[in-house]
């Protein structure tokens, strides 16, 4: 399952190329609470079909009624982009399902160029990070390759939206936990790869849509073109595989690096990496282990939920409370049981 941004852009491109009229809406600014973050997109076809979202549904309904002829609206005609705002008053906020005090501003692009969208998608599919710039007065869109992700911005005249090829997960070890984690990552729009040099594991892999890589994990990490939208998780329980992969990962720009294991095994791993491979306490700050957040998980499926939650928190820049730490929670449990 690809990311929602790519799905919206690809669908809009295909509709436009087929001669359909399309509205591309982007969340430009928010005040107070809002259901969707800035940069979120939706595409609306003239007959009322929608992909993506900019709210919990009520604003989408309003756009359908305003701009689709099948629902009594004016239709989608070629014009310069517009800015519309929802939820300025308490009544409007309630009507459009926004939290109290919430306000949402959208940029509406009418029948954007399908050729430009196609060029953007070609670059994204090739793994390129692209800055899409929209001039509001003319509707002109320019594309620029970039190496640095930027925050979405809109100054009233120009919208800048950095779009990436999507988030990726590389797993070391093809066991049962990896299959559950892969399923959840795919559901969340990640492209997923699994590496395992052990034939008895990789040859029985059962999750479709996952790239299978047979090779030594450190070589695979080195060749994976790791970027700021990549996370790497070691799940093999074999230090000969996990440790070497982690050493490569720690010197990459991956946004999340983690390894399965108990508190004791995680501590022993850190000691090995420092004593035998020249790592330091500072360089190991990026290494998550034990991985996941504490939810009392026991089964591979529950552990995968825990790990995926921590990965998504890192992706979204959320600072989890210390109480969510598995090591901290289990240490407190042990302390309580000793009294």
Automatic annotation (TrEMBL):
Classification via Pfam families: XdhC_C, XdhC_CoxI
- What InterPro entries does the record point to? MoCofactor_Util/Proc, XdhC_CoxI, XdhC_Rossmann_dom
Q: Where is the XdhC- CoxI domain?
A: 15-71
Q: Which residues form the XdhC Rossmann domain?
A: 169-311
User: Would you say which domain of life the source belongs to?
Assistant: Bacteria
Output this protein's name: XdhC family protein
Tell me the organism. Pseudomonas jessenii
């Amino acid at each position: 399952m690809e990311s929602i941004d790519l799905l919206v852009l690809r669908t809009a491109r295909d509709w436009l190329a087929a001669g359909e009229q399309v509205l591309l809406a982007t969340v430009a600014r928010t005040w107070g609470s809002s259901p969707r973050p800035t940069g979120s997109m939706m595409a609306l076809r003239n007959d009322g079909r929608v992909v993506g979202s900019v709210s919990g549904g009520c604003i989408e309904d309003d756009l359908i009624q305003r701009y689709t002829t099948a629902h009594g609206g004016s239709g989608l005609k070629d014009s310069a982009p517009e800015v519309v705002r929802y939820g300025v008053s308490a009544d409007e906020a309630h009507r459009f399902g926004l939290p109290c005090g919430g306000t949402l501003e959208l940029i509406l692009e009418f029948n954007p160029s399908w050729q430009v969208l196609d060029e953007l998608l070609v670059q994204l599919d090739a793994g390129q990070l692209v800055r899409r710039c929209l001039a509001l007065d003319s509707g002109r869109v320019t594309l620029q390759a970039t190496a640095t992700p930027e925050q979405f911005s809109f100054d009233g005249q120009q919208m800048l939206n950095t779009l990436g090829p999507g988030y990726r997960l590389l797993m070391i070890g093809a066991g049962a936990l990896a299959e559950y984690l892969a399923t959840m990552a795919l559901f969340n729009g990640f492209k997923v790869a699994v590496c395992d040099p052990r034939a008895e594991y990789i040859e029985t892999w059962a999750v479709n849509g996952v790239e299978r890589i047979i090779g030594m994990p450190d070589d695979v990490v080195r060749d994976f073109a790791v970027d700021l939208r990549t996370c790497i998780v070691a799940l093999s329980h074999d230090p000969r595989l996990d440790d070497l992969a982690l050493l490569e990962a720690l010197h990459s720009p991956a946004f999340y690096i983690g390894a399965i294991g108990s508190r004791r095994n995680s501590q022993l791993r850190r000691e090995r990496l420092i004593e035998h491979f020249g790592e330091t306490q500072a360089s190991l700050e990026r290494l998550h282990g034990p991985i996941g957040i504490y939810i009392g998980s026991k089964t591979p499926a529950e552990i995968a939920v825990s790990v995926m939650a921590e990965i998504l928190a890192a992706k979204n820049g959320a600072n989890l409370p210390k109480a969510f730490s598995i090591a901290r929670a289990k240490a407190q449990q042990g302390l309580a049981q000793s009294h």
